[in-house]
Amino acid sequence: AIMLIFIFAGAAIGSLIISKQRNILREEMNNNQILMLRNIARESIDALIFMDPLRLDELIKTINNIQGCVFAIITDNNMRIVGHTNKKNLGKNLREVTSNLPENIILINQYVEQIDKNNEIREIIVPIMSGYETIGLVIAGFSKDSIDNAVEHNLRDLRNYIFIVIGGAMLVSIWGAFGMAKLITTPIKKLKDSMELVQEGNLSFEIVNENIVTCQSVFKCKLTNCPAYSKTRCWDFPITSLLGDFTNKPLEKISHCKKCIVYKDSCGDEVGELIEAFNQMIRRLRESMIKLEETNKEKTRLEKLSALGEMSMTVAHEIKNPLNAIRGSVAYLKDNFQGKVLHEFLTIIEDETKRLNEIVRTFMTFSRPMPITLQLDDINKCIKETLNLIRHEARENNVEFITDLDETIMPFYFDSNQFKQALLNIFVNSFDATRPGDSINIITNYIDSMVQITISDTGEGMKEEVKKNIFKPFFTTKTRGTGLGLACVERIIKEHNGKIDVKSVYGKGTEFIISIPFIVEPTT
């Protein structure tokens, strides 16, 4: 359709130009004919006065050589032909040769144009004036067909040139139109393909934007404390040093960013803005899906923990009363009966009863955890105090605790009692996984408003299937223990709105990374 429009438009423009030029050329030829006949009339004055037939014949030949001339006549003031292209007509009266003449033609003082009855010859009559007196006439007839042929001949090259130019312009325009169409449709096609992928549930992609720039490159920004410093898509960050905090007003922030040269240069045009908005939608949708998946996992985990907690509480209560009875009976037997063998067996029963009581206490703690109580405390101090509980046993087994604590971390709000319990559980797990000569490293850092504690050992490490399950309640690889230690650790960390990650290479060691928020003011 576009090509047809271009063809019709080019043909129409070319035809208009040629038609206009044809009229101009025809008018120019007519004017030239009149001008030449006027010049001939002036040159004929002396020839007529002195009746010079040779000169008159030369003037007739000159007129006859004008393009398109059919006949030429020169008369005297008596309308007697003194010069004619056909010498047979010499001496005749003009009216004998030409019947189509106006009345009193000899009295005219300016040129006259007329068309013969067949509309084929255009006659021009120019008076020969001597002063204010007409002493003769110059008459010439011009063939309209000859003039039209001459005009068309002159227009031939122009027509070819015009159509070549218009054709070239059309080709360039068509090429440009297809180029522009491709330039626009290519990103739109990418957008369409991407939307189809989204419909299929694939959110792990983005449309590549090769024009993306950063604040640092455009403004030579030196605000290194800005969360978006040297990073792309600063408009995606809820907090920036330039605009401030828009955590709860993302729409207001993006409206500001759309006016920024960084956003405009990165997007380029409206299609680029559409693609960037689509990418932003995909990122937020992906983040929402991840959060939803994590929420569902957490909900499932909490439901399982709740069920396990209820079961643990029931089992603990059912076991606790018989254990108390057994412990009382053992104490009575020890006090009232003698015998070495009896005392040995009673001691074994008493020790195992104590161990069962500890397991019951752990079950009850797991099923009814205490809520965290935020208090201002020093995390490094908390770590040192927890290490003191296990350092003696570690020395006896030739295991070294190495600390690298960031002393610049100021006191902040967390539940130091429960956190000590969590740290102790990890220290004990790391200690149990080590061999004589191994070491356990504890490092603290402050990173992005979070306090990070890294606990790594050079023990035997974990296999992948073990690592996946270590935070599940009752999962253990030990012959003794309840398998609730690391489950309690994860619960305590999550109640602090933190997270715990584990990295382990079998045969090389394990690393626990704990991150909790640095809270300088407790929330009410």
Low-confidence spans: pLDDT under 50, at least 5 residues?
none
Which radius of gyration do the C-alpha atoms yield? 55 Å
Distance between the termini: 70 Å
Report the total helices.
Answer: 14
The appropriate CATH architecture of the largest domain is 2-Layer Sandwich
Number of strands: 14
The SS-based structural class is: alpha+beta
Shape: rod-shaped
Provide the helix percentage: 40-55%
Fourth-level CATH superfamily of the largest domain = PAS domain
The main β sheet shows up as: 5 strands, antiparallel
The residue-averaged pLDDT reads 80
Order of helices and strands: HHEEHEEEHHEEHHHHEHHEEHEEHHEE
Estimate nothing, just give the exact number of structural domains: 3
User: Which CATH class of the largest domain is shown?
Assistant: Alpha Beta
- The CATH topology label of the largest domain is Beta-Lactamase
- β-strand percent reads 15-25%
Going across the biggest sheet, name each strand in turn: 2-1-5-4-3
Structure description:
The structure is a single chain. The protein is α+β, with helices and mostly antiparallel strands. The chain folds into three domains: about 150 residues, Beta-Lactamase; about 100 residues, Helix Hairpins; about 150 residues, Heat Shock Protein 90, CATH 3.30.565.10. Strands 2-1-5-4-3 form a five-stranded antiparallel β-sheet. It is rod-shaped, with a radius of gyration of 55 Å.
